[in-house]
Amino acid sequence: MTKQVIHLSQEFLDKVKTILLEEKTKLENELNKFTEKNPHTTEEDFDAVYPDYGDKSDENAQEITDFLANKPLEMNLEKTLRDINKALESIQKGTYGTCKYCKEPIDEKRLIARPTSSACISCKKTLTQEA
Known about the structure:
Blueprint: H1 10-34, E1 35-37, E2 46-48, H2 57-93, H3 108-113, H4 121-128
Helix pairs in contact: 1-2
C-alpha cells in the first residue's frame, strides 16, 4: 500500500482533480483537431494527420508547412497530457503532492499554480540550477 499524503485535504484534491480533468479534455480536443490517436500504443500517443489540400504545388507546399508546424505542437500537447495523467494517477494512489525527489510535501500554492508538479520548489530549483 502506498503511503497516503496527509497534508492535502480531500476538498483540495477534488479541486485539483477537477482542474486536471478539465485541462485533459481541452488538450484532447485540441489534439483531435489535427491528429489521430495511434491505435498501436498508449492513449497519450497521437499522430499528426498529413493535410490534403490538393495537388497543385502551392497546395503541396502548404500541406508540408502545416504538417511541420503541427508536429512540435503535437509533441508538446502529448507531454502535457502525460503529465496530467500522471498527476491524476498519483491522486488515485494517494501520493499526489509529495516531491518525487525529497519525499517532502509540495506546497499547495505550487500545486494550484501547476497541478502537474511532481517536485517541490527547492528540488526543482536544484534540478534547474537556479539560485
